[in-house]
Amino acid sequence: MTQHLSSKMTQHLSSKMTQHLSSQMTQHLSSQMTQHLSSKMTQHLSSKMTQHLSSKMTQHLSSKMTQHLSSKMTHQLAFSMTYQLAHINQPKGLAICV
Fold first, then answer.
1. Using one digit for the tens of pLDDT, what is the confidence trace for 8-26?
2. Whole-angstrom Cα distance, residue 71 to residue 68?
């Protein structure tokens, strides 16, 4: 009878310990996996967002710079052409104020 009770107690304790350890391991692994995936997702999204914003900023600045330079060049050409035409058509003895 002692052996029987001892065997039953051992089985019961072994079962409880196994369940407890299994539960602890599952929680630990689940927590580790969640942290890992969360970290990976955060890195991935951060990288994608950085690339996207960098691309948008580059496009925006490139567009603004192109517009600015185009405006400056147009202004410079118009000024130069006006100046040259004024000198070509200028009667002798008249001064042109520019």
1. 899 999 999 999 999 999 9
2. 5
